[in-house]
Amino acid sequence: MRTADFQVSDDNGRHNMVNDFDLIFYNSGGWLNVHVEHIPIITETYVAIMSKQHPLSVRESLSLAELASSPFVAYHRKEIDQTYQFCMEAGFTPNIAYETDNVGIKPHLINIGAAVGIIPEICIVEYKTSYPNIAFVPIAAPLCKRTVYLGWKNDNYLTTQEGKMLPVSHCIEGTQGHLVTNELDTTGGEIFDKPSFGSLELAKQAAEGDFDEIELCGVCTDICVVSNALILKAQLPETKIVVDAKCCAGVTEESHDAALLTMKMCQVNVIS
């Protein structure tokens, strides 16, 4: 059996990894996908660390924002360290004065007072043993936690109801067909990794917003587009649901037209 404990810095690396190993330890929510089953292993709370000469080292707790003016040391890959993520949640961009891939450099720089940082509580015993001049201060805000998961591939697509009806494996994580095309600018948008044709999570989030109109486009008109249009219409009967036919394509022209007609009959506004 092949196992791995790894971090990757981009989607391509993550997609390749899921095909290379049977078991994966990870902490990125992006893995939570229908093709990767998982169980939580541990939830870790982070603490701030600094030299005992730092003025905040004697505090019982602190807000991470209080370290906004301090130089940070972090691992070069942000997915490992999470310093950047937590500081952004606290309302500031950290001054990362030092970046390293060497696990010994970070505590050394903190021990001599050159920088501050954050670590999971599970690392405190190891740091105390080797670095006596480091102080550990609980973070009161924001809530700095991460959950580590054990994941494994779910390769049973062809045994599912969808797989039996459509026996062509597609949109599988780790393949080009699963990726969002580079031609689509997703800046500032949220990506829903839906496990089937329609996304209940999309409809739920749409219901929590204040939308006068929601427009859909994509492929396939006769599968995913019509499914999500009807789910949204059921969830939000008084919201205008629009489908741009020019920006959709079906499995066939006939099924494309049939899906558009079905949506029109259900009071979805189809434009062309």
Task: Describe the model.
This protein is an alpha/beta fold and 272 residues long. Among the domains are: 103 residues, D-Maltodextrin-Binding Protein, domain 2; 79 residues, 3-Layer(aba) Sandwich (Rossmann fold). Helix content is 28%, strand content 28%. The protein is built from 9 helices and 12 strands. Strands 1, 2, 3, 4, 7, 8 and 9 form a 7-stranded mixed β-sheet that branches. Strand 10, helix 8 and strand 11 form a beta-alpha-beta unit. Helix 7 packs parallel to helix 8 and helix 8 packs parallel to helix 9. It is elongated, with a radius of gyration of 24 Å. The N terminus is likely disordered.
What's a quick, concise take on this entry?
The protein has 272 residues and is of the alpha/beta class.
Based on the model shown, name its key terms.
272 residues; alpha/beta; D-Maltodextrin-Binding Protein, domain 2; Rossmann fold; seven-stranded mixed sheet; three-stranded parallel sheet; 9 helices; 28% helix; disordered N terminus
Lay out the secondary structure.
Elements: E1 3-5, H1 11-20, E2 23-26, E3 36-51, E4 62-63, E5 71-75, H2 78-81, H3 83-89, E6 95-100, H4 105-111, E7 117-120, H5 124-130, E8 134-141, E9 145-153, H6 161-165, H7 200-208, E10 213-219, H8 221-235, E11 240-249, H9 253-265, E12 269-271
Parallel strand pairs: 1-2, 4-8, 5-6, 10-11, 11-12
Antiparallel strand pairs: 2-9, 3-7, 3-8, 3-9
Helix pairs in contact: 7-8, 8-9
CATH topology descriptor of the domain at 44-146: D-Maltodextrin-Binding Protein, domain 2
Helix and strand content put the structural class at alpha/beta
The Rg value, from CA coordinates, equals 24 Å
> What is the second-level CATH architecture of the domain at 44-146?
3-Layer(aba) Sandwich
